[in-house]
Specification:
The protein is of the alpha/beta class. It contains 13 helices and ten strands. It has two domains: 97 residues, Winged helix-like DNA-binding domain superfamily/Winged helix DNA-binding domain (Arc Repressor Mutant, subunit A), CATH 1.10.10; 214 residues, D-Maltodextrin-Binding Protein, domain 2. Strand 7, helix 9 and strand 8 form a beta-alpha-beta unit. The protein is extended. The protein starts with a helix and ends with a helix.
Length: 315
């Protein structure tokens, strides 16, 4: 039995990329004629490729009538899978062609708002200084699980402990309550009476406002009710539009505070439970590209030193 299974696996047939492309195009257009025009093939050639694919799969992928075709249930399922496969092939091919000059790809993951508001400025000029290292940056909306990520460097918020990763602390987190300047005039917020205030909520930090007031030894009865958002980016946008007061990390909102687009509702910066880290797999400790970005970010932190300036500005 084991030998039979091995034989089956060894001689298993796979469809050609041409057959998959013909099927995907026909399924997208629901027309062999239109598929033929896009693929620069004849209609009969498209039809033959799809028929051979169906024969190999021993499944019908299309319902055929004299005037139209439509996907069978199996065809609909297979179409989504094939579309994903072709996208991966295209991405892999494009990546290889664009990086065939002995350059390296540096795969980075980062939380979305941190990526756009801190990491992008920090990496400004990196590609010009390191032309043989191409950045591939992925935004990570949810929790980070190192075993699920194909990553060289991760910029994360937390306690600095992730399985199989070495972490370098970048900076602590200080959160400030911010709002549109006119919101203060309209609502006259007071930490002891929040009845007239709308406190914007972040879904991933449901107890953030309680912690903010607890650190100031301010007792607040009841629960906080307000619009809830998935990211700091959207929360900041809501504050800019006058939705209410947002509690966000100072580093992520410093530009708006400097420009006056937002102001602090209360002069207090809450110390977060976690910090921001730059982490990389232990196996890449001697990797050239990892060493280069570690040095770059460290130099940026030393040069900018903006957090102390921001704290002084706010407090």
């Amino acid at each position: 039995m084991k030998n039979e299974i091995k034989t089956q696996l060894a001689f298993r047939r796979y469809p050609s990329t041409t057959a998959l492309q013909c099927f995907e195009t026909a399924a997208r257009h629901l027309s062999f004629t239109n598929a033929a025009q896009e693929m620069h093939m004849t209609q009969s050639a498209i039809s033959k490729q799809v028929a051979q694919l169906e024969e190999m799969l021993n499944l019908s992928l299309f319902y055929r009538t004299p005037h139209r075709i439509s996907l069978t249930p199996a065809g609909k399922t297979y179409y989504l899978e094939v579309l994903d496969i072709l996208k991966h092939i295209e991405a892999a091919t494009t990546s290889l062609m664009s990086n065939s000059d002995n350059s390296e790809i540096l795969k980075i993951v980062s939380h979305p708002t941190f990526c756009s508001r801190w990491l992008m400025p920090a990496l400004s000029g990196f590609s010009q200084a390191q032309p043989l290292i191409n950045l591939n940056i992925k935004e990570l909306a949810g929790p980070f699980f190192s075993e699920d990520q194909n990553v060289d460097v991760a910029f994360l918020y937390g306690d600095g402990i992730w399985a199989g990763m070495e972490s370098i602390k970048l900076f602590d987190e200080y959160s400030v309550a911010v709002c549109h300047p006119e919101y203060l005039t309209e609502k006259s917020p007071c930490t002891h009476n929040l009845d007239n205030c709308t406190l914007l909520q972040l879904s991933s930090r449901p107890s953030a406002w309680y912690e903010y007031f607890r650190q100031q030894d301010i007792s607040i009865d009841g629960t906080f009710v307000g619009p809830r958002f998935d990211t700091f980016h959207t929360t900041i946008s809501a504050a800019l539009l006058g939705y209410g007061i947002a509690l966000v990390p100072l580093r992520l909102v410093a530009p708006e505070l400097r420009s006056g687009a937002l102001v602090t509702a209360w002069s207090y910066a809450a110390n977060g439970r976690g910090a921001y880290y730059m982490s990389y797999p232990l196996s890449l400790g001697n990797s050239h590209k990892v060493k280069v970005i570690l040095e770059w970010v460290s130099a940026y932190l030393e040069k900018s030193n903006e957090h102390k300036k921001d704290l002084n500005f706010i407090l």
